[in-house]
């Protein structure tokens, strides 16, 4: 995929970091025939210009005891969308949450310890929020792919 508004060197740096976010600037420089300092300056510019938002790791949720992966459609009264979105966003079980076009529905992904935690999350947290009208829950049975955002 070609990344618009970036020269080939910046695109190559992004691809290498996307494949291995721990790759050193020296190694990237070696692969691209540039100095470590030149790579560091380019990466800093990519961060400053918000092309790169952050550097992170991906954890294996199952090995950390989060075995239930569930997606929710939370239908909310329009006046309470911001309130409900803010409250759910603050929950550490929530991985992502989006408001989409159309009805005032929030689409959310959460990782939970087990079925009891799922039930508690639904009835002890989501349904207790003022403005929540209905929740549709789907539990993942098999994952084919998980991205980290923009795939190159």
TrEMBL record:
Alphabetized SMART domains for the sequence? HTH_ASNC (SM00344)
Q: What is the lineage of its organism?
A: Bacteria, Bacillati, Bacillota, Bacilli, Bacillales
Q: Which GO terms describe its molecular function?
A: sequence-specific DNA binding
Domain HTH asnC-type residue range list: 6-67
Pfam families noted in UniProt: AsnC_trans_reg, HTH_AsnC-type
From the Swiss-Prot or TrEMBL record, give the protein name. Lrp/AsnC family transcriptional regulator
Q: Which UniProt keywords apply?
A: DNA-binding, Transcription, Transcription regulation
Q: Does the keyword Cytoplasm apply?
A: no
Q: Which GO terms describe its biological process?
A: response to amino acid
* This protein's GO CC annotations: cytosol
PANTHER family (UniProt xref): LEUCINE-RESPONSIVE REGULATORY PROTEIN (PTHR30154), TRANSCRIPTIONAL REGULATOR AZLB (PTHR30154:SF34)
